[in-house]
Amino acid sequence: MTTLLEVKNLKTSFFKKKNEVKAVDGVDIVIKKGETVALVGESGSGKSITSLSIMGLVPSPGGKIVGGQILLEGKDLTTLSEKEMCRIRGNEISMIFQEPMTSLNPVLTIGEQITEVIIYHQKLSKKEAEQKAIELLKLVGFSRADEIIHEYPHRLSGGMRQRVMIAMAMSCNPKLLIADEPTTALDVTIQAQILELMKGLSDQFDTSILLITHDLGVVSEVAERVVVMYCGQVVEEAHVDDLFDEPLHPYTEGLIQSIPSIEGEIERLQNIEGNVPTPDQLPKGCRFAPRCSKAFGRCFEEAPQLIEKDGRAVRCF
């Protein structure tokens, strides 16, 4: 499989007066063509800022990519102007955001919002774009697509709005689809449908997916490889089966043990003590050490490097 996206030593910081807060600190991610990679971690681990960095949407002023490269088929996105990024966003790379109600414009119809993307990137006429919008809505499971294009977002349920977001994201057959917690606000049945839909579209159009989530149950369903983040750094990377069979990092182990299981009876779920430290108050040594049951002296003094071996990577002594 050929490489589609390569994130190399990405560093994204936020600046307040003279203070630099490192939200993403030296992240490496490789995504092959047609592959689904999950980016996993608790809230505050840097997942969403990593995705916004790839899209060139780091909140500004204040936020800035300060180092590293983001290579899309060899082209470094960090060197492009805003005008050049506009041609790539929605066309070569698309993103589905967490909450579709805040991502969709409440005063425009569904049809107006989908056709806007198609007209901008594909230079089709309004009538052709509208026909394509209907086809896309049918593709994501709307039986009355020709009626839905005239509806406003508030008239649709959460699951329907998320389908609209997927239709919009897939409108230009992107090479990479970034899905940031796409099933968070949905009930379990709709979650399964949305994941199945994304998987099907990926297979159909050979689109690569970067799935950002804190839900390892979702990961086991759709991802091929998993990248685990903690405090702005990658702490483990592995094939999905290897990760669940034998997690190497204590943090990954804690995340897996905190998932409810339908096999056997567990009186109480495991939890990881403490909270993710804020980027401006990182501990000395290993960032996970204060919460780790296996930490020893060296962990509190020295920061471990990411060690790669046998197709896996782990940041742990």
Relevant terms:
alpha/beta, 4-stranded antiparallel beta sheet, single chain, 12 strands, 317 residues
In total, how many beta strands? 12
> N- to C-terminal separation?
32 Å
Q: Order of strands across the widest beta sheet?
A: 6-7-8-3-9-10-12-11
- Treating each run of at least 4 consecutive H or I residues as one helix, how many helices? 11
- The fraction of residues in strands falls at 15-25%
- Percent helix, as a range, is 25-40%
Given the helix and strand composition, which structural class is it? alpha/beta
Low-pLDDT segments, ≥5 res: none
Write the SSE topology:
Elements: E1 3-16, E2 19-32, E3 36-40, H1 47-55, E4 63-72, E5 75-76, H2 82-88, E6 93-96, H3 100-103, H4 110-122, H5 126-139, H6 145-148, H7 158-169, E7 176-180, H8 188-205, E8 208-213, H9 216-222, E9 225-230, E10 233-239, H10 240-245, H11 250-257, E11 307-309, E12 312-314
Parallel strand pairs: 3-8, 3-9, 6-7, 7-8
Antiparallel strand pairs: 1-2, 1-4, 4-5, 9-10, 10-12, 11-12
Helix pairs in contact: 4-5, 5-7, 7-8
